[in-house]
Amino acid sequence: STARSRLRSGALRAWRETSERRAGTKARRRAALETSERRSGRLAKAAALHAWRMRTLRGARRAQAEAEEQKALLAARVKQLEGALRVVALDAELNEAIDREEELEEQLAELQLRLEEEGGGGKGPDAAELRSQLDEAHLALAAAAWRRQLLEQVMPQLALGGETSGGVDSYVDFAGETRVERKSSGSLQYVPFSGISEADGSADILPAQAALAT
Hints:
By secondary structure, this protein is mainly alpha-helical. The chain has one domain (7-160). It is 75% helix and 7% strand. It has helices spanning 2-117, 119-122, 127-159, 206-213; strands at 168-172, 177-182, 188-192. A three-stranded antiparallel β-sheet has the order 1-2-3, with helices on one face. α1 runs antiparallel to α3 (127-159). Residues 57-121 form a coiled coil.
C-alpha cells in the first residue's frame, strides 16, 4: 500500500513536471512568436516610412527640376522678347536715321546751289556765311551717315537673336559721341566722332569700326 502510494505520487509529480515544462515551452514559443511579430511590424512600419520618404524626396526633386526648367524657359522667352523689342526700336531708329540723312542731303544740295548762285564766283557778301553753313551741313551729313551705317551693322545680328561680332548690345543717339554698350562686360564705351576726313571729305567712321571690332 505504501509502495503503491509512493509510486503514484512519483508518477504524478513526473507528470506535473512534464506538463509544466511543456507549458513553459509553449509560453516561450508564444512569447518568441509575439516578439517576432512585433519586430516584423516595426520593420514593416519602418519600410513603409522609408518608402514614403523616398517618394516624397523624388517628388520634391522632380518638382524642383520642373521649376528650374520652367525658369530657364521663362528666362529664354524674356530674352527673346527683349531682343525683339530691341530690333523694333533699332528698326525705328534706322528709319529715322535714313530720313535724317536724306533731309541733310537736300539741305546740303540747297546750300551748294545757293553758293554757286552767289555772285562774284562765290565771293559775294553772303558767301562766307554760306560756306560756313555748308561745312556744318557736311559735318551733320557725315554724322548722320555714320549713325545709319552703325545701325545697319548692328541690326542684322540682333534680328537673328544674337550679338554683333563685337558684342555690341545697344547704343544711344549721339551728339558728337556715340555710346556703345557691351554685353560681355556690361561696360559703356564712348566713341567720339572725328568729323570729316581732310583727304576726301568723307565721313571718318574708323572709331565706330574699331568699337565693333574690339
